[in-house]
Protein 1
Amino acid sequence: MIEIAIDGTAASGKGTLGKKLSNKYNFPYLDTGILYRKIASYIIKENINNTSDLEKQCCDFAQNLILEELKNENLRTEIVAKLAAKIATFPDLRKILNNKQKEFNKINKKKYGGCILDGRDIGTIILPNADFKFFITASLEVRAKRRLLEKNISFLHENDEKCMLLNLINNMRERDKLDSIRKISPLVPAKDAYIIDTSLINAQELFFKVSNIIEGKK
Ligand code: CDP
């Protein structure tokens, strides 16, 4: 049974890699960021961001989350991402979500012979004994450009595009920093992770590189 852990910075190519590997090997894939994003979007919807018991409210909501139901959620806005990074620092919330991620891995590994998770602390905390650990990153500018392309905005005036790109760069820089310096489950490569910089390679090249490592072809 094979466990594959993918961690890394925002928009580094983790998600695309996870999906491609999932298709190739027929192992279920979980984008764990969706859990944090789902809770963040709930907070926004309920307008409870400033309540004194925010962590408790997040925990209550998290207890009832069903991972399989989150797969088709579209929660990829910058506001949601920013709030996700804030609540991701709550220790009790992480405990609940960690258990759900471990359970997902346990069940699917047994059923399909393997499982793929991507996030920030997969190789360090969730699957410390994973067979393969990858830490994916890229320069801030490259990642911001990728995220802008993902937004699929058909026509933008040059100045608006520049402005959006700058905003994305600032948001991501802030989020990477918060993710990396937090005390609990910080974004750091596991000691035994393959660290791959995707600044100069595309999604397909990353996929080949990682597949070769998994298949022992290095
Ligand atoms: O797609 P992107 O890399 O931009 O973000 P994401 O994976 O959806 O994660 C959103 C936020 O959730 C991150 O910035 C982290 O603060 C948090 N997160 C986490 O703390 N641990 C994880 N395993 C996954 C996400």
Protein 2
Amino acid sequence: MSNGLRAVRGMNDILPADSPLWRHFETMVEAWLDLYGYREIRTPILEHTGLFRRAIGEVTDIVEKEMYTFVDELNGESLTLRPEGTASTVRAAIEHNLLFDGGKRLWYRGPMFRHERPQKGRYRQFHQIGVEALGFAGPDLDIEHLLMTARLWRQLGLAEAIHLEINSLGGAESRARHRGKLVAYFQAHVHDLDEDARRRLHGNPLRILDSKNPAMQAMLEAAPRLLDELEQEARVHFDAVRQGLVDAGIPYRVNPRLVRGLDYYNHTVFEWVTDRLGAQGTVCAGGRYDGLVAQMGGKPAPACGYAMGVERLLVMMQEAGLAPGALAPDAYVVNVGESAGRFARMAAESLRDAGLRVLLHAGGGSFKAQMKRADASGARHAIIIGDDEAALGEVAVKPLRAQGEQRRFALGRAVEILKGF
Ligand code: ATP
Ligand code: MG
């Protein structure tokens, strides 16, 4: 196929063979969010570029090199396909004054866009489910988020394979103190820094800790730890989060180098990780971002949230044999003859009136050929109609998945019989 007629690289079609798994996942997620009282918000896929630059931070992977940004030729505005959901959610909350009567528990779903190198578990259009709790201070919501994600892994059948890592980025005071020590340390090891790290040394030194470059690991392991700098308030907050995890029996590992890729975090940050996906091991990530709402022009409101990568979770479910099959029809209506065809259409509608899933054979062909199609469809019954049946208002019913004779009934009776299965 000529290049122009292929999907954009890194952007996937979700084909019918995969959609039962997507639906199964989405249905479970909706019910799970209802358990915790989160309400869905749907924001546009396009936003003004400035929104993301301001919310995510200039010296981040996303803003530096991953955004799909273009100029709207009709009015010259710079627009960006959303690379994540927090910025839009906070924008909408401010724009519509959603926090006027207190904190809000929100969630969103949908495609996100990042110009990255496509590989397994990393795409240019991918899907997230995200949760944001706006307007809640203290550790309660951090703990709620960790408990609720742990529940989702149990419900999806993935609890064994996903593990929790947490860290605290502290408050403004401890971050400033740590930043000074970190820059001094990196300057002393400047020859060990790769190009990315050198560029970040003054813009965003914390992010250097996040580097996956093998050559820098030993140096990074020995770097000053933010955890050792935490002020009293941050220490109390973090201890409360840890206590909440202990109370709930959720195992976790403190990872002092976990800093997250976005600028807006403070206090608790976390990642749920797996070793089943190779390098793309993080399935869910988030934390607290108390300063973001005010930074974006809203009345100051503490907040926390997280997002999970749907494709990564679905690969895990697929590989664990947890993907459901396609929904089989209850009946496949075989029909040969002109009057049979007209009666078959009515019969199929009557069956659907009763809530049955019906495939009506289309395109003609012999009884034998149509019966083959009926069998291949996975239907539990074939409803067989020739001109003789049509003349009497009857249909023949043949079980396809169990032993049993083909038997003839009045249409109304056949509907009752199929409903009884
Ligand atoms: P990574 O370190 O893997 O690049 P990230 O820190 O950029 O992840 P977040 O912005 O925290 O990711 O997004 C939350 C989740 O969304 C990730 O943990 C991951 O599961 C998923 N995700 C992020 N980028 C992609 C992508 N390009 N393709 C598929 N899933 C992704
Ligand atoms: Mg990334």
